[in-house]
Amino acid sequence: MSGIGRASVLIGAGTIVSRLTGFLRTVVLVWAVGATTDAGNAFAIANQLPNNIYTIISTGLLSAVVVPQIVKAAAHDDGGRAFVSKLFTLGTVVLLAATAIATVAAPWLVQLYAPAYSAEQQALATAFAYWCLPQIVFYGLFALVGESLNARRVYGPYTWAPIVNNVVSIVGFLAFIWIFGAGGAATEWTPEMIALLAGTATLAIVVQTGILFLFWRRTGLHVHADFRWRGVGLGQIGRLAGWTFLMVVAGQIAGIVQSQVLSEIPEGDPGFFVTQNAWLLFMLPYSIIVLSIGTPYFTQLSEHARAGRDDDVRADVGRSIRTLGLFVVAATAALGAAAMPASRIFTDTTEEAVAAGIVLLCFLVGLVPLAVLFVIQRTFYAYDNTRTPFFFTLLQCALVAVTAVAAWWAVRADWLGLSQLAAAVALGQSIASIVQVVVATWLLQRRLGGLSIGSWMLALARFALAAIPAAGAGWLMFQLLGGVGGWTVSDKLLGALGAAVIGTVSLVVYAAVLALLRAPELEAAISLTRRLLPGRR
Fold it and tell me: In sequence order, what are the residues at sequence separation of 6 or more whose Cβ sits closer than 8 angstroms to the Cβ of residue 324?
């Protein structure tokens, strides 16, 4: 446990700094392009394309398969050197080919994701995309190196390198504002403006990847180009990744449906860019809490599964869900109470902050289920089972697509306004996540048995009970500070300050109620939190 605790703190601290600088990056980007403008939405679509394509070809494979397989390969006579060399060579070839194809197909990709955009907005998004799509190669290399480091229990660099990305982006976006001012209508963008804004985004990814390569020596592996892709188990990866690939494709299809629905939203209402920023806020506690605590657990869980120690795996599942749940429920209460001030950070007006805050609240409905799913899904992965996660993820993707289309039909039937469409899409995604985690947990119970679901569900219920007065206290503080008409939603900086005050009140009340309830998990949480303090180990 001490090893997991130290790794969690290292990952958590790096993630906090990364997310904070990422927030500043987004603030500067909103300043440059606007939160609800055609140009802002065009850039958001274009800069998301490399992430989506990379996800299809690589992310599912890496997160589901590479860590367990590298752990296994470490037992080879060469310590896994041949395996990793072949894996990196194959990965680089695939990434380069995908980048070339995607760049040629940029106009069609923009049309696919945003069919309702005007011709001028699609042309601008396509121009941005030509500069952004080379990110695919560097995202892939970054993930390959990072997951290899994680598999060797070198957690820090993968978490801290994105900070450099954010710093480069901030400098580049500020240079854009200094030279060109805030971007105007879609028809007013020049090639120089496009190159500086989108080129900065890509340069930041390049630098981030280069920084990570500096730490490769710590893996103890010497990698070289090797085009002989047979003989060290790559066939096993192919069989495992087949289901994962289909799962990722299903997720991307659902995302395309969401994007197409959001492209119907006109300038001035919360659309794709606002939804993307609400997701960024939503992912803050997920990244800090779930990834920092869950990633070391996944490495340990993979080792236990490989050794056939099912009892230890069951204990890992219950312990990690209870630990994650305590923190994630607290974050849900705090961020829910501070939703509108927090959203003001990434918007230009109070009205935009209120609309974006509602989108965030709809996403937050699914935060706790998503944290539980992290553990359940990766337990299947630890047993080299990617087939079962495909089916329960396919269900989730179908629900995401259906709820997004249903939201658009509700708008056309005048049951919802266009200003509410983004919130409805976000709520549909949360509902889909709840259904997914219920089905996934049931399937894991059938696979392993003895998950002691009742014990960790009781813990989650205890946390939820404490969250009710915590969220209420935070909301009361928001009202005492002026509510929607107050200073906490009047400015970006004041929004950040107001969110911090409101969130702190919620967290204090949450901890106090848990103490009154004598929650056994509280002591472990306090111990983990103390390790984040300067000078503590």
Answer: 289, 290, 293, 294, 371, 372, 374, 375
Give me the phi and psi of 337, to 5 degrees please.
-65, -30
Q: What are phi and psi of 90, to 5 degrees?
A: -60, -45
CA 14 to chain CA mean position, Å = 15
SS3 category, 453? helix
Per-position DSSP letters for 29-79, written without gaps between them: HHHHH-SSSHHHHHHHHHHHHHHHHHIIIIIHHIIIIIHHHHHHHTTSTTT
The pTM of the full predicted model, rounded to 2 decimals, is: 0.86
Geometric angle at alpha carbon 181, from 178 and 186, rounded to 5°: 140
Q: Could you give the residue ranges of the DSSP H alpha helices within 181-286?
A: 191-213, 234-262, 272-285
Q: What letter represents residue 488's amino acid? A: T
Per-residue pLDDT tens digits for 230-242: 654 555 556 656 7
Q: Look at the block and give the residue holding tokens 């409101």.
A: 502
Q: How many angstroms separate the Cα of 111 from the Cα of each of 53, 136, 289?
A: 15, 19, 36
- Distance between CA atoms of 100 and 79, rounded to whole angstroms? 34
- The stretch 116-134 carries a mean pLDDT of 96
How remote is the C-alpha of 461 from its chain's centroid? 25
> Is pLDDT larger for residue 402 or for residue 247?
402
Cα dihedral sign, 363-262-127-51? positive
Helix-, strand-, coil-residue percentages of the chain, each rounded to 5:
80, 0, 20
- For residues 46-65, average pLDDT: 74
CA 472 to chain centre: 27
| CB contact at 8 A, 510 and 336 | no
Q: Give 399-455 pLDDT, tens digit per residue.
A: 999 999 999 999 999 999 999 999 999 999 999 999 999 999 999 998 887 788 888
Q: How confident is the model over 152-171, as pLDDT tens digits?
A: 666 667 777 889 999 999 99
Say how far residue 159 (Cα) sits from the centre of its chain. 13
Q: Which of 353, 317, 439, 338 is nearest to 36 (CA)?
A: 353
Domain range list for the chain: 1-232, 241-530
**pLDDT at residue 470, as a whole number:** 97
